[in-house]
Each structure stands twice: as structure tokens, then as C-alpha cells.
Design a protein that fits this description.
The protein is an alpha/beta fold and about 500 residues long. It has three domains: about 130 residues, HUPs (Rossmann fold, 3-Layer(aba) Sandwich); about 80 residues, Alpha Horseshoe (Serine Threonine Protein Phosphatase 5, Tetratricopeptide repeat), CATH 1.25.40; about 200 residues, DNA Cyclobutane Dipyrimidine Photolyase, subunit A, domain 3, CATH 1.10.579.10. α1 links the parallel β1 and β2. α11 runs antiparallel to α12 and α16 crosses α17. It is globular. The N and C termini lie far apart (about 55 Å). Bound molecules: flavin-adenine dinucleotide. Flavin-adenine dinucleotide binds next to α10, α12, α15 and α17.
């Protein structure tokens, strides 16, 4: 080890890919030592079943955007592809690392285990690891009594502002940093980066928010009417505080009370859901209400595969899945319907479904995703069980079938009255509209009405089960706010 190692601090970027309102950066600057900023693409995390190339493309674009912004200050974020400990070990041979600054991560078990290994490493090497609170999610919380107030205080606090003109970068000229080629944009997906994040935010608050509430449930209209900020928030290109404060200013300037109120509740749900996962991370694997273990659902590979590939023969379900595969985003209602279709109508366990949609959602956020899956599949015991009828959802939210026809072109000539129930067409009508069911497009993999009845009876009978009821009181104490309905609505 080099005995004349210069003391430095490190800022370790994870899901916080921004330069503005970034507390670890500010703390590192205040500490006064030269700073080395880094991001590490971790092969073990990249290989986790919840992740896909689309996620790392987004991260790569985001890092490029940050380094582009930093160029004029002669500063750079170093990018590695490696497990984390070898990188820190390599840096230790060049520098005397004093403090690593990062955000707390409410992540999957794989990143939780990695963080435990980093804690152990830091202790051994006498390095201080200082983690900042992310988006108001509190570590080690036992109940939610004072949580709401602390969340509002967090959102109202001033944005962290770094003085880049006077940033002290550690001298990295002697370091061997692999040259990792940036990943190219894919035109179907939202582009990564802090600059795009702010552009989406501005456009939403100035224009698109007008149609927010009226388009939120509709698969087609929501693509413009919703904020589409989710990947930027999930990967930290924006902090929720930035969005919250910008929305408050926009409300003061433009009014639009109803739209702003609807948007503000979603921003509150962000941390509300992540807090559940932070407090009980076994939700990645197990039913939060252990009483539901008695359901003992088994995966049927054929049914599961039909759902995964958008080949169930239920047009809206297939359209949403194919749209997700191609673009990485559908709105809340359609996500809830996909989860409900798999776990209720197809009567499959939620775990493989959660893994598959995590892979497809560009905005995959473990802390929202897993608690949402628990809720939508009806295994919390404390939420109303909602079994979506995909035919009714189609008739209500895509009445002309425009969205369905875009993603299920096999049905492009089918008229409105059959578009959500093509199985009602006679053989002659199928011929007339150019689709042979069972050949060009599947017949439904389940009888929707019978499957709905079966799931409803099963799930409602569980509500009075003693094991379920016992878990309910535990879950209520741990995860819900004093007036839970105002925050934890399941609608969207
Ligand atoms: C089964 C299922 C899985 C989900 N998985 C994810 C996920 O992995 N990542 C993710 O960001 N969202 C997830 N959601 C929540 C929601 O569908 C998305 O946040 C939303 O559709 C993103 O679009 P938007 O940014 O335009 O949302 P907007 O309606 O404009 O909302 C603004 C922001 O509020 C937050 N938000 C909105 N709705 C919710 C909600 N119901 N719960 C918690 N936070 C919310 C998000 O950060 C979102 O970006 C999931 C929902 C379901 C039903």
C-alpha cells in the first residue's frame, strides 16, 4: 500500500443520478477534502432477475448527462463496471479514504447484502460511511405516528445546492479507470438524464397537467396526461422534494387546484410505499400477511407464459403487456389490472409476475413495486380486494379499442362492439374482420367470469381466517398512518 496516500472523500452515486438537490454532494463539499465521485455498474445487480438492459441504458444516459454538465467545471464522475468492494479496495491503494457519502438505498436483498458488506469493509478500513435520507424514507422506523409530519418537513427543506465553481476534485490522473462505452438511446423509451427529467417536469407542470385527472386511468391518454416522471424519480434524476416544490410553485402561479391535489397525493404515496418496504423487506419474497400462505398457489408455466408474452387472448391485457415490453411504461390502472389478471383470473403466485414486470418497468422501484404487488394481488388483508375485469376496463378506458389495436394488430379490423370480447364473434364475423381466433389470435386462456367468481370466493373467505386477522393488526400497527385512507388510496 502506498504510504503517502492523499486523504480524500468519496461520493458514491446509486439511484440518485442528479447534481441538484443532492445532499451527499453538498456534505462532501462542506467537508473540504478533495472528492472523488463514482458510479459502479455491479454485474451481480445487473444480473438480478428484476433488471434488464433498458435499466442500465437509462443509467448510462443519465451518467453521460451528468458528466456533460460537469465538463465546464473540469470535474467528472468515474464510472466502473465491477463489484463494489474491489473498486473501493483499488481506490484505497491510491488514497486514504476518509468518508464515503451516499444516499440510503431501500433496495432488493441483493443490494441490502452488498450494503452490509460495504459497512463491514468500511469498519475494517476505518472509513466513515455517511448515508443521507432519500425522499423522506426513514430507516429503523417502528410505526408511522410521527412519519407524516417528518415527511412534510423533509419536502419543505431548502434544496441542497453545490458550488461547482469551487468544487475540489481528487487528482485521479494516476488511476486506472476502465473506459466504459455509453449505451445508445432507444427511441421507444424515455431517455435517461437530469436534463430530460427537468424538461419532462416543466412540460408537465406548464401544460400536460391540465388533463392529468381525466386521463390517469386511460392507457392511451395517460401517456401524455400523466407526469411520466417515474423513471426520473426512481433513478434519482429528480428528488421528490424538487418535484414537490416545483408543483407548489406551479399551483400558486396557475391554480388548477384539483389537478395539483391529485398529483400531490401520488408524490406522497411514493415515500409511503417505499417506507413499507424499508420497514419490512421480506415483501420481496413473501406474503406480507402470512395468513395468505395458506392459498398455496402453484405456477402453471403455460398460463404464466401467456400473460408474460401478451398472448392471453384478453385484448386489453395483451395490449398492455406488449406495450410494456416495447416501451417500459403503462399507467397505474393498467399495471394494477395486469397484476390482478395474473394473480386472480389466472390464479398464479404474484412473485414471478412481480419479477417480470420489474424487468419491464423502466421506472422499477423496489419499494413501490413490491408493496403494490402485495396490495393488488390481495395478500395484505388490510386493503379492499380489487379484482379487475379487463373487459370492463377496456370498455371504460379504451372504448374505441384504439390502444388495443395499436398493440394487438391482429385485431385491427375488429369493430368496437367486439374489440374487448373478440371471442363473442361468430366464425363468419371472424372471417369478415380478418382474424381467426385460436390461429391468428388466442382464444382466452381462462373463462373470465368463472375465474372472477372463483378468485372472489377464495379471497373473501380468507378475510375471516384467524391467521389473516392476526396478521392484520400487526400490519396496521406497522405500516399505516393514523388516517390511512387520505394517503393510501388504491385508486388511479
Ligand atoms: C403492480 C404495480 C407495480 C408498480 N410498480 C412501480 C414501480 O416499480 N415504480 C414506480 O415508480 N411506480 C410503480 N407503480 C406505481 C405507479 O403505477 C407509477 O408510479 C406511475 O404509473 C408512474 O407514472 P407517472 O410518473 O406518470 O405517475 P404520476 O401519476 O404522474 O405520479 C407522479 C409520481 O408519483 C409516484 N406515484 C404515482 N402513483 C403511485 C402509486 N400508486 N404508488 C406509489 N407512488 C406513486 C411516482 O413516483 C410517480 O412518478 C406500480 C403500480 C402497480 C399497480
Amino acid at each position: 500500500m502506498n504510504s503517502s496516500r492523499l486523504p480524500i472523500n468519496i461520493v458514491w452515486f446509486k439511484r440518485d443520478l442528479r447534481l441538484r438537490d443532492h445532499e451527499p454532494l453538498l456534505l462532501a463539499q462542506k467537508a473540504g477534502l478533495p472528492v472523488l465521485m463514482l458510479y459502479i455498474f455491479e454485474p451481480s445487480v445487473m444480473a438480478a432477475p428484476q433488471y434488464d438492459e433498458r435499466h442500465w441504458r437509462f443509467v448510462s444516459q443519465s451518467l453521460e448527462d451528468l458528466n456533460r454538465q460537469l465538463l465546464s467545471f473540469g470535474v467528472k464522475i468515474l464510472v466502473y463496471e465491477s463489484e463494489v468492494l474491489p473498486v473501493f479496495a483499488q481506490l484505497l491503494s491510491h488514497f486514504s479514504i476518509q468518508t464515503i457519502y451516499s444516499y440510503q438505498e431501500t433496495g432488493l436483498k441483493i443490494t441490502y447484502d452488498r450494503d452490509k458488506a460495504v459497512t463491514h469493509f468500511c469498519k475494517k478500513q476505518n472509513i466513515n460511511w455517511q448515508e443521507s435520507v432519500a425522499n423522506g424514507v426513514v430507516r429503523g422506523l417502528r410505526n408511522r405516528k410521527a412519519w407524516r409530519e417528518s415527511w412534510y418537513d423533509f419536502m419543505a427543506a431548502p434544496l441542497a445546492k453545490v458550488d461547482w465553481e469551487n468544487w475540489k476534485q481528487a487528482d485521479v490522473s494516476n488511476l486506472k479507470v476502465p473506459d466504459i462505452a455509453p449505451k445508445k438511446l432507444h427511441p421507444n423509451f424515455q431517455p435517461g438524464g437530469e436534463s430530460y427529467a427537468h424538461a419532462y417536469l416543466k412540460d408537465f407542470l406548464n401544460n400536460r397537467i391540465r388533463n392529468y385527472a381525466k386521463s390517469i386511468s386511460k392507457p392511451l391518454e395517460s401517456r401524455r396526461g400523466c407526469s411520466r416522471l417515474s423513471p426520473y424519480i426512481a433513478w434519482g434524476c429528480l428528488s421528490v422534494r424538487q418535484v414537490w416544490q416545483a408543483a407548489a410553485q406551479s399551483h400558486a402561479a396557475h391554480g388548477r387546484k384539483f389537478q395539483h391535489a391529485a398529483f400531490a397525493s401520488r408524490l406522497r404515496w411514493q415515500a409511503h410505499f417505499i417506507q413499507k418496504f424499508e420497514s419490512e423487506d421480506r415483501m420481496e419474497f413473501e406474503n406480507v400477511n402470512r395468513g395468505y400462505d395458506a392459498l398455496e398457489k402453484k405456477t402453471d408455466p403455460i398460463l404464466f407464459d401467456s400473460w408474460k408474452q401478451g398472448q392471453t387472448g384478453i385484448p386489453l391485457v395483451d395490449a398492455c403487456m406488449r406495450c410494456l415490453i416495447a416501451t417500459g411504461w403503462v399507467n397505474f390502472r393498467m399495471r394494477a389490472m395486469l397484476a390482478s389478471c395474473l394473480t386472480h383470473l389466472l390464479w398464479q403466485p404474484w412473485q414471478p409476475g412481480a419479477e417480470w414486470l420489474a424487468k419491464l418497468f423502466l421506472d422499477f422501484e423496489p419499494g413501490i413495486h413490491y408493496p403494490q404487488w402485495q396490495m393488488q394481488s390481495g395478500v395484505t388483508g388490510i386493503n379492499t380486494v380489487r379484482i379487475y375485469n379487463p373487459v370492463k376496463q377496456g370498455q371504460d378506458n379504451d372504448p374505441k379499442g384504439i390502444f388495443v389495436k395499436q398493440w394487438v394488430p391482429e385485431l385491427r379490423n375488429v369493430p368496437e362492439n367486439f374489440i374487448h370480447e373478440p371471442w363473442k364473434m361468430s366464425a363468419m364475423e371472424q372471417q369478415l374482420y380478418g382474424v381467426a381466433l385460436g390461429k391468428d389470435y388466442p382464444t382466452p386462456v381462462v373463462d373470465i367470469k368463472a375465474a372472477h367468481r372463483f378468485a372472489r370466493e377464495k379471497l373473501w373467505s380468507m378475510r375471516s381466517d384467524n391467521a389473516v386477522k392476526k396478521e392484520n393488526s400487526r400490519i396496521l400497527k406497522r405500516h399505516t398512518l393514523p388516517d390511512r385512507e387520505a394517503w393510501a388510496s388504491t385508486q388511479g
